[in-house]
Prior knowledge:
By secondary structure, this protein is of the alpha+beta class. The longest helix has 19 residues, at 583-601. The protein is 17% helix and 35% strand. The model has no long low-confidence stretch (mean pLDDT 93). It has a domain at 351-601: Alpha/Beta hydrolase fold, catalytic domain (Rossmann fold, 3-Layer(aba) Sandwich). Strand 10 (120-128) and strand 11 (134-142) form a beta hairpin. The strands form eight sheets. Strands 29-30-32-31-33-34-35-36 form an eight-stranded mixed sheet, sandwiched between helices. Helix 1 (2-16) packs antiparallel against helix 2.
Amino acid sequence: xxxxxxxxxxxxxxxxxxxxxxxxxxxxxxxxxxxxxxxxxxxxxxxxxxxxxxxxxxxxxxxxxxxxxxxxxxxxxxxxxxxxxxxxxxxxxxxxxxxxxxxxxxxxxxxxxxxxxxxxxxxxxxxxxxxxxxxxxxxxxxxxxxxxxxxxxxxxxxxxxxxxxxxxxxxxxxxxxxxxxxxxxxxxxxxxxxxxxxxxxxxxxxxxxxxxxxxxxxxxxxxxxxxxxxxxxxxxxxxxxxxxxxxxxxxxxxxxxxxxxxxxxxxxxxxxxxxxxxxxxxxxxxxxxxxxxxxxxxxxxxxxxxxxxxxxxxxxxxxxxxxxxxxxxxxxxxxxxxxxxxxxxxxxxxxxxxxxxxxxxxxxxxxxxxxxxxxxxxxxxxxxxxxxxxxxxxxxxxxxxxxxxxxxxxxxxxxxxxxxxxxxxxxxxxxxxxxxxxxxxxxxxxxxxxxxxxxxxxxxxxxxxxxxxxxxxxxxxxxxxxxxxxxxxxxxxxxxxxxxxxxxxxxxxxxxxxxxxxxxxxxxxxxxxxxxxxxxxxxxxxxxxxxxxxxxxxxxxxxxxxxxxxxxxxxxxxxxxxxxxxxxxxxxxxxxxxxxxxxxxxxx
Length: 604
């Protein structure tokens, strides 16, 4: 049986691992980065009339803000710009270069969000100084020289030159805010050597403009959440006023949930509560396309005046690269993958769940029933997503289907604080992380039990990153779960305040409160300070090079649990960062977690 579990786990990792990102288009050609399940590298692909892998002698990955993104850009000239993972420098291949050429020479810098202009390549630069200070700015690169264009804010993203080449727009935010707390859209007058007269587009404090672009009339098109929902604006005029989000949480660079086709014609992705919609917005009239996908974006690209490409996500099949005629609604699959090799595979459709939280609000989740026939009510795995300012969605997830194949039911929870349900729902976690997210994971179990869908006495919980803290606090403060799994999870909030990376260095001010004023909250909500209340077995998975949640977060609590005689397992992966990339490590973590839960729940 163990050999079969390992084989299915390996296949699920390969299927689930074919992830595409940084989709873009130039002169009718389509480009993207793809990380396959049998490799830990991201490869560059191009599609004109056929699929063609582009030879790149290095792995492409930016580490700006540690989470990266924005590491592929194709300019109107046809030049391709990428970021080399090993040295974090920008490399270019164009008609002028027969091979990839390094165009930045600042060794202590990282780069993201490249944008080609006639005067050079604009990009976000992140300098790492010897005193450990980190400084971001917007620079322009030409002839191997890098000059600063815009500086003074803590964080920058998405510099873009207007079509008339007279103005530059960009996003920025400052400590203690994260980009989903307040994100500023600014515009400045551009010349070849400098940007002047910078002014702010936002009209409110704590307003989030998460994405923007220019139309051909040199008007700014953007999404803002100042109404309480992330809505579309053109030239500061609200054009789509609807209680659905079209923005997204900016954890990474790159990506966008809308495309400007022409003035007053936009393609827009609208958010939950359940499946997303892709539609055509003409003026203020939004018409959704009739498509079979449950999720879109943030990878959309314009091919020509009547066609776009996007990555479409199914609930029961791997993602597809799709071309859409926006006028006829006709789609063609450029790349799709059918599941034929998984013996006995039966897709489990996610069921949207709305449950009442203990404070009377509505919580959201997706329930997956087991595909394996069992004679009794199934054991349940509860997933607490990372972030925590993020969300889960009902897209094909071969890991969940792996658990379903083993007879487990799964519920994937969008607890209060998740994105996509409006600003009020997101802000419900302010100062409440470690409490409301935990309560919602418990309350959804009670709901499913009342619906007679699960065995309430055989429930376990798992989480990655911030979801690890949710998992551990659920085990400590509630009697709902028999065991838990923490993947590079947070265990010591005080330690995270003192040792974390710059991007999230003030994140806990929002999630918990000011450390100097609310030290007691940090202690009460840190699992490492509540070992005496932890009775359930836990398995920990950790990468040795994790800069987001350092390995000591897992090692310290594992040591204390062992000293207390508790049931604990620890699996460490050499060379892995925040999120495992190597296939063998993904397979081992999935198999070891399943064996652990089976042992605790006495499942053969």
